[in-house]
Structure formats: structure tokens, C-alpha cells
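re: ur question from the group chat, yeah i did fold both. here u go
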Amino acid sequence: MELNTIQNSWKNNFKNPIIIAGPCSAESETQMLETAERIKNSGLEIPIFRAGIWKPRTKPNGFEGVGVIGLGWLKKVKEEFGFQTATEVANSHHVEAALKADVDILWIGARSTVNPFTMQEIAEALEGTEKTILVKNPVNPDLALWIGGFERLLAKNITNLGAIHRGFSTYQKTNYRNTPNWQIALDFKNQFPNIPLFIDPSHIVGKRDGLAELTQNAINLGYDGAMIETHCNPDAAWSDASQQITPEVLATLISNLKIRNANSDLSQENLEQNRSIISDIDSQLIDLLFERMKISEKIGIYKKDNNIAVFQPERWKIINQYALQKASLTNMSASFIEKVFKAIHEESVEVQNGIMNNGS
């Protein structure tokens, strides 16, 4: 059996789009039940309740989840409100405990997907399960690594699968917590259209503003659903408070989504995909230009302190030659590249002139 042949009939039990909602972390039974009740009373069909029981953190000594006790709270949510339940597993012990607690859907986080040893351990612990397993993209932009995680699961006869696009880490600071890199997710979707694909806007955006827009973008691109962090009191959340929303805000977000016709024109869908990729690249270009101008500021300060002229003709020749060389390697128009770099250089000169004239 191959990844692109599995049926994934589990998704037919839900209406499109499939919404998974709940707090980043389970904190108390009261918090879980209140959040679940308010989601239930929102008037929308949100079938899956999520909560992190174990929380892998970037640095130690932070809140790392309540542990096994939280599985009992998830079970109570299921019994009282009829949700299917979902949580993250990061090792074989988590898998054993979650299966024992009859959690319906397990997801594997980005920090686990990036490690083949961890993925193998989890796959072996899940061997033969009929539970639905969702796999987040790895933290680094590596499509092969993401696919490899699925292949390890399939090798252990795990065939109810789904993918979660949660964005990718980057050293550069951007408007996103994790940059979307739509191209990678869309390459996955094109290669495996049979595997349901979810957006995780909470981890991509990293704040409440922008969640609705990003979710809509994903729906426009034919994603099957969204996982959105929802908390009864987001400002008081023990983890990732800034990216969580109330159940009422969630209801508004979901009700305002414009759902694409599954039988819509494929050329229109392709247009939307390419526009999203262009927007993603444009965002990266702006962030890189911002970083470049910050370096120009440092150079301007050095030139001022050492009484060096702003414009250095030899340096401009080097920049221009490099740009033309890169243009030839990419078959792009040399005149276009020259115009772009000339504009960048002119702005850099303006930045440094401003520093030279400040307080002089």
C-alpha cells in the first residue's frame, strides 16, 4: 500500500470544513468543561475538541502540561458534550496513555515530526491502530521529512491519516510566529490529495489578529479543515495566551468563512494557490529588505564615526556585478535585476545619509 492510495474514509464522518478547537493546554477540569460548553453552545457544528496534555516547550522550567490527569478531563468533555477528542503525543508513553483513555484523534507535533527516531517510536507504539493520526509539518521546511513521517506510520499499518500545516520556524523575525511557506504544504496536497490537510493558524500567526484571514486563505486553497486554539479565558492561559481566542470569537470566525465549492473550476483553485505563494514570497522579501536596511544603518553609524563617505563607488560595482551574475544564473532579465538592486542601493544610501546628517 502506498500513501497516495489509502482511502482515509474517516473524514467522511464530518462535514466540510472539519473544525478542531480547544485550548492550547488542559489546565483544569473547570477550564476544559467551560471551554467545551461554550463551544457547544456556539450554535456551530464543531465536532472535535482538542487540548494539549503534554506540552513540549522550547526552553525548560516552563509549563509543560498537566500530564495524564488531563486525559480524564478530555474523557469528561467527550461524555458530557459529545465531542470527539484530540491530543498531541510525543513518545510511546503518551501513546499508551492516550489510547487507554480512548482519545479519538492523536496528533504528532512539529518537534516530533522533525526527528525520525521519535517518529519511529511513535509509529511502533501505534502499530495497527484504527485511531485517526494527524501529522504536523516538521519545524524546518523539509517536505521529504514530513512525507517520511507518514511513511513510517503506514509501514505499521496505520491508515487513518491527516496532515496539519502549522508553518515553519525561521531565524529571521517576521510577521508570523512560523512562516507559512505555502508552497511546501501545497506540494504535499498536490502529491497526496487523498490525505486530509488542516491549517493550524494559531501557530502560524502566533496572535489573534490574522487568524480569520489565514484560515480563509487555507479554505480557498482547498484545505479540509482547521485546528484553532480556543480558551474560555485566553488572556489567563498558561501557554500561548496571545494566539488563543474565546469560543464566541471562534464562532464568528467560522460562520464568516466562505466555503469553496468542492466542484469549483480547477484553474481558479490553481490561481488561488499561486497567489498565496506570491503573497508568502512577498512577505519574505519585505522582511529580508528590512533586515538589509538594519545592516545598512550599522554601516552608516560606522561610516559616521570614522568619517567615511556614504557612497563607495567600488562597493557599488561589486554589488552590481554580483546582481548581474545571479541574474544570468537564474535566466532572469539583467536589466530588471539591475533596476531592483539600484533601488535597494539608493534606499541604503538614503538611510546612511540620514544617519550622517542626524545631529551633525
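okk and heres the other one u asked abt
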Amino acid sequence: MSSVGGMAITDKVRFGILGCAKIARQVARAISLSEECELHAVGSRSLEKAVSFVLDNGLPASVRIYGSYEAVLDDPEVDAAYIPLPTTLHMEIAVLAAKRKKHVLLEKPVALNIGELDRILEACRANGVQFMDGTMWMHHPRTAKMKEALLDVSRFGQLKLIHSFISYNAGPEFLENDIRVKPDLDALGALGDIGWYCIRSILWAVNYQLPNKVVAMHEPVYNDAGVILSAGASLYWSDGKVATFHCSFLNHMAFEVTAFGTTGIIRVSDIITPFQDKYATFYSSSVSDFAEVEPGQWAPAPKEHRVDADVPQEVVMVSEFARLVSGINTRVSKPDEEWVNISRKTQLVLDAVKDSLMKNYQSVEIIE
């Protein structure tokens, strides 16, 4: 079997997982289900925790188990690192992974600020490895269908407004003990955990055109340690587009995104995780008005669109990442910069929202 760069051309991409967070279970399953991937190693701060993760999730006996993150990165047979660690550790571990020539699949939020993210991206470029963040919904086939609907000017018209509302009622145990409310682990709180999704959905709708300015909404909620539990913002573009979002650990679960055009709207109610594994839906309406025959009814009524999925969106994500990695390792292609740019723009907007909050809701300009 021939090989290039230490990877056999016909081999699957071998993943090492660094950390045993809840989301890591979902991605470990996705790696196992993907035809392009193989779970090669799992590492945690303690060997016992890594062993429990492998056993509790029924992972293959062939998976190597390590008692440190560094040991996974030192394994010469690991091609790519999936990093679901607390955000505070992202820069250190992702940079180390890149220097070890491991491709980086990094959970969101990818960094505490743009400075940290740029150090990660510089390390990835310097070492010729692929970077991608773990925003799973981007890879669902529904996402491509919704973009088609957005670009259908004959039905949707011109995009004018986007609203994203993403929340879940985390409960007292979460609000007291989860890493996402600890300033030394995930200091961005709800803004990083689910505000990232809100911002990404807005940027996706505007084809990643950065807003000119951002203004945080009044009355955010912080815990006693100063971590954001609930917040929102408005985003403005020079051509008149406007977007608003709200993210919260304190409201009932909602994953809503609506895009409003001059002649149509597109709405999705489960943007982060579809209600079903096998398919996902979204709604659209175009040139609707009140019906003349039956007053009070819409004519035409909003239409439900169903998009089937052969596998869960996280499987599509790791498969797409693996194909990029394989192309690089076999010298067929270079690292894809599109995913880098999307992550960086998301971080820039997130930073601007946080800056506006710190400046008592003043308008903050975004300079790329």
C-alpha cells in the first residue's frame, strides 16, 4: 500500500479525541459511522476518565487510551485532533496540535477572542493543517436547501432582516456547576455557547458579509462570577440590512432563525439539532396575503420543505473534514481557507458584541 506524508492513501482519517465532554460522545459516534474516518485514540486529563469514556460509549477495543492530551498529539498515527475542551484551553491545545502536524476540528466557541483565534490559525497555516470549527448544522443538507431558497430572488426578494433566537433552560445544577458558567473555563457563557450559533446563522444568511456595526441589547443577565447567562444584540449593514439575536440559558429551549425578504420569509425552528435524525424541515412563504374567499387565512399558505438526511449532521461534518484532510495528506490539495474565514468572521462579531456590552451598549464598528 503506497503512502504520502505518513498516511496510506487508502486509509481512513484517524482521529484522536482530546477530552471527554458530553459533545465528544456525539462526535465519537459520528466518527464511527463515517466511512472516511476512524477513531484511533481518546485522551483525558486522567487515564481513568478516558477509560470510562471508551467503555461507557461502547467504543472499539482498538481505540488507544491516554491519560493526557499531549499523549494523543504525540501518537504518530493520529491524523486529526477533535478538541471539545473548555474554551480557555483552546489556544494552547489547538496550537500544540497544529505544531504536531495534526489537523484541527475545534469545538465552538473556538476562542475567547480574535487574538487567540489568530494564533491558532497562524499555527495551522504554518504547519499545513486543516482547521474547521464544530458547528454541525452547517453540514446538514437542509442548510444548502435553505440557501437556495434565500437566493431565489423571484420568491424571496431582497434580504432585509434576520432574527435568531437560541436558548435552553439549563436548570439550577447547570447554572451552578457547568463549565459554561465558570469564568476560568468558558468565560463567554451563553454568548459563546449558543450566541455563536446565532451569529453564525446571521452571517450565513448574508453570505458572510460582516456588519458595519454591532450594538448589544440592554439588560443582559450575568451570574455572580460575571459570566453571561442571557444577552442579545443588533447588527447593521450599510446597505440597510438589519439582524437581531438573543441567546439565553434561562428560557425554554428554542432554536429559531427567520430570514425576512421583500417578498418572502424563511423560517427554521430547530437550526442547531433537527427534531429528527432522518430528515429536517423549514418553512417558507412568498407573496402571501389574506385570502379573499376565507378572510383571516393566508394565501398562499406557508410551505413546509422536508429535506431527507442519510446520516446525522455530525457524520456529514466529520466526513467533510476527513475529505479535506485526505486531500492535504495525499498532496492533492491545500488546506481549505473557507472554513477558516467563516470561523474568524463569527469570532469578530462575537467580540464586537462583548465589547458593546462592556461599553454600556455603545455601537461598535467591525474592522476585518
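fwiw on the second one: Residues 337-358 form the longest helix (22 residues). The domain at 3-135+314-335 is CATH 3.40.50.720 (Rossmann fold). idk if thats what u expected
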